[in-house]
Amino acid sequence: MKIRFSLTKKLVVMSAAILVAITLVACYKSSETSPPKVKAGEIDPTRPAKIAKAYVYEGGVCPIDSSNPKLVSNLISATRKLLLSVNGWATTDSTGKPVGSMIFAVLSNDTDTVYLEGKRVPRPDVAKGNRLLDLVGFEVAGSLSNAPVGEYTLSIASGTEFVIDMCKTPVVVRISE
């Protein structure tokens, strides 16, 4: 009888330890994601209307394949007179999650943010048969005529009207007159 009680006690202690470990991992994982900057039902007036109410999370994968003006050493030197175009692909960190239908190139610095809307395009070389990634590619082109002169960090925002993944790139866009 003493052996059975001891074994049961050990199982209870081990089960409790496993539960605590799972809880700690879940808390750690949830703290990795930035909290939404806009609460449900609130509008962020700095964003385009299509994504003004969306929760924004940082993360994702978003390599830039090409740009016009040309990308040189993670720098795009652009002017307010010409269009800026950026091409690449973007997806979330989550596997098994389809890519969102909306895509924006986001230029931001300490004082200004510029959104350029783009479109999703097929990238079979990236999708490799995964139907969730059929439209993982993107093409963005837009005018910088209203953008203040300065240096901006390029991010790619992808998702839906409800949730946006904001993927930061190492690219800097320098806008001049």
- Give the H and E element order: HEEEEEEEHEEE
Strand % is: 35-45%
Named CATH architecture of the largest domain = Sandwich
In whole angstroms, the N-to-C terminal distance is 87 Å
- What is the number of beta strands? 10
How many DSSP H or I helices? 2
Helix percentage range: 10-25%
Give me the CATH fold name of the largest domain.
Answer: Immunoglobulin-like
Shape: globular
How would you summarize the topology of this molecule?
Layout: H1 2-32, E1 55-58, E2 64-68, E3 71-72, E4 75-79, E5 83-89, E6 102-108, E7 113-121, H2 124-127, E8 137-143, E9 150-159, E10 163-176
Parallel strand pairs: 1-10, 4-10
Antiparallel strand pairs: 2-5, 3-4, 5-8, 6-7, 6-9, 7-8, 9-10
